Hints:
Layout: H1 5-12, H2 18-38, H3 42-51, H4 60-70, H5 85-97, H6 102-110, H7 120-131, H8 140-149, H9 151-169, H10 175-188
Helix pairs in contact: 1-3, 2-3, 2-7, 3-6, 3-7, 5-6, 6-7, 7-9, 8-9, 9-10
Enzyme class: hydrolase
Protein name: bis(5'-nucleosyl)-tetraphosphatase (symmetrical)
EC number: 3.6.1.41
Amino acid sequence: MLMTSEEAFAHVRPHLSPARYTHTLGVHEVSITLAKRYGADVQKCELAAILHDICKEHDVRDMRQTVTEVLKEPHWAQYGDELLHAPCGAHYVQHHLGICDNDILAAIKSHTTGRAHMSIVEKVVFVADYIEPNRAFPGVEKARLLAEESLDSACLYALQQTMTFLLQKEVPIHPETVCAYHAFLKRKGRSTIE
């Protein structure tokens, strides 16, 4: 049996600053709305949303060590420290909180990068993290409107915007993000250059 949302909030609260906790509340709220709209498992979406940033403010050196030595996925450290909390969070939730549900773990791990063939729970959390009410950046309103019409369209837009932002900063883009972008383009029927 999965933990309740109250139990998850109790676990996550000590790990987060007030601002990060407010963000988490927003992701939680939007995840419930999207899960209901698109027929996803509400409890799984809730738990993944609550726990998605549990390691966000952990020590970067510790997270680098975790992805390299424990997870044996050193490539995460090559694409910016901002991504490390996702695989570390999934690991933490599994090994410290005993959550072994693959949908929840995958949603936590992929919420920063996306990935090809995302489950509906992953899509819900990915989009909710992007559009939660406290987010204010160019394009977020369009993303919110797209999320009301199509979860896949919202994912594709978020991936496009993220990649554009990273390209403008001239920083590496995680391969999972590129693969996710291609997968959503293919679903949309635009897999070739015309």
